[in-house]
Amino acid sequence: MGCISNKRRPSSAVLLITSPHVIIYVNKHSSCSANGIRLLVEMFFSLNELLSWLGLSLFELWLNLVSLCVFSILLALPSSSPSSWWITFSPLFVADALNAYFSTIVLIRMYLEALYKVAFFRALWSFCFLAALFSFEFLLCRKLSGETSLEYSEVISPIFILLQLMAVRACQLH
Questions:
Q1: What is the model's pTM?
Q2: What is the DSSP letter of 79?
Q3: Range of 31's domain?
Q4: Fewest CB within 10 angstroms: 2, 27, 156, 159, which?
Q5: Structural domain tally of the chain?
Q6: What are the residues facing 15 on neighbouring strands?
């Protein structure tokens, strides 16, 4: 038996990951189980790769994840008021404001340490990232509350621009 199988679970196998499309079993008695686990771990990005590709610090990533969790909880709560979309999106807006404040502090500290070029490019990337993200959130909130007649392709266009910028940044890193 090999390391990865899509058949029924054998009695000597350990279930690693299940998803709607893939079930992976690693045989306990096989010599390739360590290779199978190593293959599985190498499929995901490391934290350092994720931070360098996104151009965020660990604090900014943590802040975005916490705000996304609070947003998800508020999204699940029932509400019938049209202004409720602004309340639902408020954790994302607060996170954007805190990220902009943090980026400004980092810019000032890097400037005081005479890292002018690095400070400029980090600030430029951070503020482009935040501007695209904020404009998407703002346009989506307006669209969902019925305040504008924009199409969804127009609302999502800042995300498309952000993805293109991230692709250019990923190519520059390697």
A1: 0.69
A2: -
A3: 1-44
A4: 2
A5: 2
A6: 25
